[in-house]
Amino acid sequence: MNKKLLWALVLALYSHSAFSQLNENPLLNLQNFDKQPLHWGYFLGINQYDFKFDYDRYNNREGLRDVQVAKNIGFNVGLIGDLRINEYMNLRLEPGLYYTQRDLYFPHSDLSGEDERLREVKSTYIHVPLLLKVSTKRIGNVKPYIVGGLSSSINLGSNKNSKEDNRQGTFRMEKQAYYYEVGFGIDFYLYYFKFSPSIRGVFAFNDELKPDDDPNSPWTGNINGMYSRAIFINLTFE
Asked: What InterPro entries does UniProt report for this protein, alphabetically (predicted)?
């Protein structure tokens, strides 16, 4: 599934649901739901992770080139804790499990064969964001919102403590990462529960690369920093 198709599916879902809920005199569902001081829920979703690389441009060794990243679709699942601040603001904790894979291709002149040039980076993140949700006034059974905050994750597949590196086919990353997040969504008040599709951008603060032991490694020798960034599309049920 490419990025254009992904966006088209999200927009189609939003527009269909919004128009079906917006009528002149809707029967209001869950009228007292947002008055709860604390409530719980869960989410399911998909993700697409990428890497942003910072390179050592002063390293002029012949054959060093930018790393190519092939992105894949992963999946998310997690829980929601929502604390009401006032009518328009809520503080949310959304711990979840995020599985993803990024394929890195190193077009270095010293490397020959797919086994040396390709690294499949499989990551399973325990991702914990603390978010501020700012909503508009409820319109019938619909309420749009924006959301933003900070998060941290533990990469269970980081290989940080491995004694092997890319010479033995092992790509290593730092175990902990820190991010900022921003996104938007729409709350739909259904008969039995509140359903909310949302989309969010996630951007890492810290360098996640664990370099190879050889400072002149053809895989990591010209990389100053490697930072995750991702798109999350979540469907929440509260």
From this structure: Beta-barrel_OMP_2
Mean residue pLDDT of the chain comes to 88
Q: Which of 160, 135, 153 has the alpha carbon at shortest distance from 145? A: 135
DSSP-assigned states of every residue in 154-199: EETT--TT-S--GGGT---B-SEEEEEEEEEEEEEE-SSSEEEEEE
Closest alpha carbon to 5 in 46, 52, 43, 42: 46
Distance CA(126)–CA(104), nearest Å, equals 22
CA distance 110 to 201: 36
- Decide which of 3.20.20.70, 3.40.630.30, 2.40.160.20, 3.40.50.300 is the CATH code for 3-237: 2.40.160.20
- What pTM did the predictor assign? 0.84
Taking alpha carbons only, the member of 64, 6, 104, 53 closest to residue 228 is 53
60: left (phi over 0), alpha (psi -120 to 50) or beta: alpha
For the stretch 51-60, pLDDT in tens is 999 987 665 4
Task: Show me where the domains of the chain are located.
Answer: 3-237
Helix (H, G, I), strand (E, B) or coil at 30: coil
